[in-house]
């Protein structure tokens, strides 16, 4: 078990191949929701590691590994959160701020009320690997809610979002560094 939301099956998928200079261990690496071992909707493609012998250890992670991770966390509800004033002390947005941007909100709410944001992924995030980077495509929505004086909440509007980002990893001065680029 990794955490309260996900588990990973990292059992051997075949017998170890033992050669004079090395041992080849082929691990399965499948994520699933905690306590609910379900078949993944993805099919694992074969993975070939380049034949090199100048390092002591080589690790390879396939797209399948990341896809099952995304599936497990999405199924467990990890990509849903609510941001409220109590959640972060620096979060101080109210309906007056949104009213200056969106006139409909100003008509609806004359008195400034605190705002909550409900963020959720509406589909399983898609992770794909390229030679020098990987991309993550997330489809989601942000619902903006007003907190009324009687502690009830009123939905103001919902934004549907599709974000596609590229992440490149490099090693500089023996440190793993990443750069994030919003593609669209």
From TrEMBL:
GO molecular function, one term: lipid binding
Cellular compartments annotated: Secreted
Repressor is among the record's keywords: no
Residues of the Lipid-binding serum glycoprotein C-terminal domain: 51-184
Predominant location: secreted
SMART domains the UniProt entry points to: BPI2
Short name of one Pfam family: LBP_BPI_CETP_C
Assigned GO CC terms: extracellular space
Keyword Signal: yes
Residue ranges of the TM segments: none
InterPro entries referenced in this protein's UniProt entry, alphabetically: Bactericidal_perm-incr_a/b_dom, BPI/LBP/Plunc, Lipid-bd_serum_glycop_C
Keywords of this entry: Antibiotic, Antimicrobial, Disulfide bond, Glycoprotein, Immunity, Innate immunity, Secreted, Signal
Record GO biological process: defense response to Gram-negative bacterium; innate immune response
PANTHER family: BACTERICIDAL PERMEABILITY-INCREASING BPI PROTEIN-RELATED, BPI FOLD-CONTAINING FAMILY C PROTEIN
Function: The cytotoxic action of BPI is limited to many species of Gram-negative bacteria; this specificity may be explained by a strong affinity of the very basic N-terminal half for the negatively charged lipopolysaccharides that are unique to the Gram-negative bacterial outer envelope.
Domain notes from UniProt: The N- and C-terminal barrels adopt an identical fold despite having only 13% of conserved residues.
Record's subunit section: Monomer. Homodimer; disulfide-linked.
The protein, known as: Bactericidal permeability-increasing protein
């Amino acid at each position: 078990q990794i955490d309260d939301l996900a588990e990973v099956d990292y059992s051997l998928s075949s017998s170890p191949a033992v050669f004079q200079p090395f041992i080849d261990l082929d691990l399965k690496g499948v994520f699933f929701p905690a306590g609910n071992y379900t078949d993944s909707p993805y099919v694992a493609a074969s993975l070939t590691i380049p034949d090199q012998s100048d390092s002591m250890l080589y690790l390879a992670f396939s797209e399948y590994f990341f896809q099952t991770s995304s599936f497990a966390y999405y199924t467990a509800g990890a990509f849903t959160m609510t941001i409220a004033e109590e959640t972060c002390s620096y979060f101080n947005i109210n309906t007056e701020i949104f009213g200056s941007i969106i006139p409909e909100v100003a008509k609806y709410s004359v008195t400034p009320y605190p705002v909550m944001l409900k963020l959720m992924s509406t589909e399983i995030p898609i992770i794909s690997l390229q030679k020098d980077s990987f991309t993550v495509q997330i489809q989601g929505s942000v619902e903006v809610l007003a907190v009324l004086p009687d502690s009830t909440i009123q939905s103001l509007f919902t934004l549907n979002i599709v974000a596609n980002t590229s992440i490149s990893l490099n090693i500089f001065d023996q440190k793993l560094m990443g750069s994030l680029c919003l593609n669209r």
